[in-house]
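Methods, example record. To illustrate the input and output format used throughout this study, we show the complete record for Zinc metalloprotease. The sequence lines were provided to the predictor; the line carrying structure tokens was produced by it.
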Amino acid sequence: MVGILAFIVVFGVLVTVHEFGHMYFAKKAGILCPEFAIGMGPKIFSYKKNDTQYTIRLLPIGGYVRMASKDMEINPLNTGMRVQIKVNDADEVTHILLDDKHNFQYVEEVEIIESDISEGMYIKAYRLTDNEVVTYHFSEETYFVEDSELERIAPLSARFESKTVWQRFLTLFAGPLFNFLLAFVLFTVLFYIQGKASDEPIVGQVVEDTPAEEINLETGDRIEEINGKTVESWSHMTTLIQEGEGKPQELLIESDGEYRTETLKPIVDETELPDGTVQERLIIGVGAYFENGVLQPIWWGIEETISSMSLIFELVVRMIGTIFTGGFSFDMLNGPVGIYKVTESVAAEGILVLMRFTALLSVNLGIMNLLPIPALDGGRICFVLYEGIFRKPVNRKVELNIQLIGVLFVLVIMVLVTWNDIKTFFL
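The corresponding predicted structure is encoded as:
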């Protein structure tokens, strides 16, 4: 149960922050956003505010912000259809009433001849009171009304394609950007809570019933040498311990300015990984020393975020490289099932470990979404940058076909990765 709740919280936070980034900059640019969705598939909850429907959907495989654009407008008006309309003093349509479940007064009943809500923004119809053929243009705020619900028809000025290259770039880049900002916040909070592990070979804590306790190591002791080799850092110390292959090791320890030599034998620590395999490593039973500060955690948060971005970017590039060298395997990827299993294991380690895991996932989500794949933010950014460089948009038909191929590619990969996760963790 804890694993399920942890997964729901982690997934919800990552997707909400990512999509909020898109929506925030979209609305700043004046782009109408009819829906903000967490999850995919059937709707299980919805709430409407300021022309945006906020929804939670059943399948935890992503989310989206539906932004107004020419290709997203769905016209429910058909030739011969009878509807009622309400107009303003300038004879512009403000409401198109698709049923009788409304309380509007002073409306006109018409029979549709033709209509255009993508470019022309008008209705041509027979006015039933006098059988006149009339053409009504839409006002800046025009709504479809059905089941007492209002859905705004996006004016040309409030659509994605009507905005500048810079506004569209920011809107698309904002999702990954907010993921990086989330990681920074989480890392910074962690550093304020527990400090930052020092890379100096200084003992922070000693675990009970371990070789370190047996030789009376204490917090603040510094390990100077292992088997005659000078210890340069904490990471160097762990390397030297592993190189000892489990044999007794001689440590030179500095404690309050005094030196002593102790001999201990590392023990084997076993960790079960999410895929069921067991990882073994040699330990002596000490934890790193943690530094604290007032403003330093903010800087450490920036450093850790940049470091994580560099590491994950490098790993992604290597993974892509294996596609061309023949070393690629779907075991390198995790879908929703794999992420759930890993989250379940991480949650068992405690809230602080889960926070760090969430920060790393957030960085990973940001990096992956910037890949130049048409269905992802990075692919759409490429189209916007092309328009900015060459001063003309990509041919619309070509762009739509490339986007379709990208969506199909992502769906196929997701299905294969999910099946691989199921085989790994459950079969």
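Annotations derived from this record:
The first strand starts at residue 35 and ends at 49.
The chain has nine helices and 18 strands.
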